[in-house]
Amino acid sequence: MSAPDASLMDLAYEERSDLAAFLSTLSDQDWHTESLCAGWTVKDVVAHIISYEELTVGGLIKRFAKGRVVRANEVGVAEYSSLSPHELLDFLNRHLRPHGLTAGFGGMIGLVDATIHHQDIRRALNRPRIVPPHRLLRILPLVPSNPRLGAGRRIKGLRLRADDIAWEHGDGPDVAGTGEALLLAMTGRRQAAEELTGSGAATLLRRL
């Protein structure tokens, strides 16, 4: 476990290392199971995680143009679709410390992205884990104001409160649950939102 003051980059390295170790245990059927990301298999999610690692600025512009910005992630997944699960895992193991775009904001992008998608895979395969609390405590405050994740509009006017770690956000009707479930609900995962309780839980669920 890292020190309490570990950098976001170090935490991203930890999370990616845990994800790679888990992926190494999956069967071929597991890799082709649909994840919590609608329309994406586990293999697609891993392709997405690595798809920005070696992208140049010029390559990013081309990807955004091809995907008309909003579908840039799908373009990236398609670019890596020819790789086998073994090749994707090998690539991830060579990029446990984020590079390129995912190293942005001190590793914040790599940390948040890897943690959310790790859970997308785990939950889809019914292979739960407890996200290390020291990572959740660093990730959760980064999510509400991140426009890329769309959490702000989902949780507007609600008070989110984790019941397993010391984190809360906002004012209004209460939405309570584990830090992991709150993270996934804020980022649009309905399965996690259905686990939340409180007078504001139904409102959040409707917004998904």
UniProtKB/TrEMBL annotation:
Coiled-coil regions listed in the entry: none
Matching InterPro entries: DinB/YfiT-like (IPR034660), Maleyloyr_isom (IPR017517), MDMPI_metal-binding (IPR024344)
SUPFAM superfamilies documented for this protein: DinB/YfiT-like putative metalloenzymes
Source domain of life: Bacteria
Mycothiol-dependent maleylpyruvate isomerase metal-binding domain span: 14-94
Pfam families found in the cross-reference section: MDMPI_N
GO molecular function annotations of the record: metal ion binding
NCBIfam families given in the database record: maleylpyruvate isomerase family mycothiol-dependent enzyme
Protein name as catalogued: DinB family protein
Source species: Mycolicibacter sinensis (strain JDM601)
Organism placement in taxonomy: Bacteria, Bacillati, Actinomycetota, Actinomycetes, Mycobacteriales
